[in-house]
């Protein structure tokens, strides 16, 4: 597992804020099974959420800051309570972070951030208002949450062969390739002036295009004709374009190539670019990836969907079993709003 110092610092802002304000009597917002979340815990998480949402956020007024906080607070307080419940569950299961494991993670942090000594790390932590003890507490909380998720959720996500096949049969369009075409083009441009298109020049361009097409049909190399006559930038490559989706062609060209096979040459076609002649170099029709090749992709899709569902059910169970004692009505309202928003996303009632 890789840890970057900036990410750890952001995660630990709540702890850091508490450390900086240790001499102030904390306002308790809520007790979760007897453990408290304080006002400075919440403020640290709010700051982290605002930074994550917009690193360059500079509210123009107190009203703007208040609005930004109101937007992030419901999800922030729900996350804070859920994390506490997960950490408590991890402790119930007997999980803890050994000194050896902590030291290993610290070395990884130092390596990732090119920090050469413990003294430099402590100085960097101090700039974030943190101590090594703060860092260890946050890393242990993160580890406990991950272990609980692995034990209570991830190990239960078995995907059967029947589920894989059922998904494949119902979503074959997800494994279909887009029809593609590789072509060569010759474009004979029609001059456009401020007065519009001159009819005589338009006729001359069309006649030239018909003459060039005649040479191509007679067997002259299309690539050489493109290099000699085309007004398109692709002339440098013998008019070669693609592969590209057929839907990327203009409506006029889609009609011109419809039903043609590899090697066919279209009639001269008037487009917004002038008069064009197209030779079909290669066609790739729609194909569907075989089930055996799609199995791993399907398994990931189903497992991710199950994970979201199982995670939502698991945290709902922890919430239902918890004793949550609110000490601040406004934060309680924000929590209830956050729950409503979270359940709408996960599809929970």
Key terms:
single chain, 349 residues, alpha+beta, four-stranded antiparallel beta sheet, three-stranded antiparallel beta sheet, 13 helices, elongated
What are the SSEs and their pairings?
Layout: H1 5-11, H2 13-20, E1 28-32, E2 35-38, H3 39-53, H4 62-92, H5 99-112, H6 118-127, H7 132-152, H8 161-170, E3 180-188, E4 192-193, E5 196-197, H9 199-217, H10 222-229, E6 240-245, H11 251-257, E7 269-271, E8 274-284, H12 291-321, E9 324-326, H13 329-346
Antiparallel strand pairs: 1-2, 1-9, 3-6, 3-8, 4-5, 7-8
Helix pairs in contact: 2-3, 3-4, 4-7, 4-13, 8-12
Word description of this protein:
The chain is elongated and about 90 Å long. It contains 13 helices and nine strands. It is α+β, with helices and mostly antiparallel strands and 349 residues long. Helix 4 crosses helix 7 (132-152). The strands form three sheets. It has a four-stranded antiparallel β-sheet, with helices on both faces. The model is unreliable at 6-24 (pLDDT under 50).
């Amino acid at each position: 597992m890789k840890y970057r110092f900036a990410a750890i610092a952001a995660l630990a802002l709540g702890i850091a804020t508490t450390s900086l304000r240790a001499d102030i009597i904390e306002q308790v917002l809520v007790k979760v099974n007897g453990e408290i979340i304080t006002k400075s815990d919440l403020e640290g998480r709010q700051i982290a959420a605002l930074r994550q949402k917009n690193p360059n956020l500079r509210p123009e007024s107190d009203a703007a800051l208040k609005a930004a906080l109101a937007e992030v607070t419901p999800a922030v307080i729900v996350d804070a309570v859920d994390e506490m419940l997960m950490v408590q569950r991890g402790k119930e299961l007997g999980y803890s972070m050994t000194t050896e494991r902590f030291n290993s993670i610290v070395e990884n942090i130092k390596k990732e951030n090119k920090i050469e000594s413990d003294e430099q790390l402590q100085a960097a932590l101090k700039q974030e208002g943190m101590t090594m003890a703060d860092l260890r507490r946050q890393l242990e909380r993160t580890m406990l949450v991950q272990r609980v998720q692995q034990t209570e959720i991830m190990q239960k996500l078995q995907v059967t062969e029947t589920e894989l096949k059922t998904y494949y049969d119902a979503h074959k369009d997800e494994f279909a390739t887009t029809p593609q075409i590789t072509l060569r083009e010759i474009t004979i441009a029609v001059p456009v002036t401020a007065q519009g298109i001159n009819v005589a020049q338009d006729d001359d361009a069309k006649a030239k295009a018909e003459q060039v097409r005649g040479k191509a049909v007679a067997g002259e190399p299309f690539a050489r004709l493109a290099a000699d006559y085309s007004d398109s930038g692709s002339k440098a490559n013998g008019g070669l374009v693609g592969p590209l989706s057929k839907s990327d062609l203009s409506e006029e060209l889609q009609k011109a190539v419809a039903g043609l096979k590899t090697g066919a040459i279209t009639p001269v076609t008037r487009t917004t670019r002038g008069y064009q002649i197209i030779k079909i170099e290669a066609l790739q029709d729609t194909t569907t990836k075989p089930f055996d090749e799609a199995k791993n992709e399907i398994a990931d899709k189903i497992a991710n969907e199950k994970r979201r569902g199982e995670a939502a059910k698991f945290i709902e169970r922890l919430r239902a079993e918890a004793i949550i004692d609110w000490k601040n009505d406004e934060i309680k309202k924000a929590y209830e709003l956050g729950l409503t928003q979270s359940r709408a996303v996960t599809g929970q009632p």
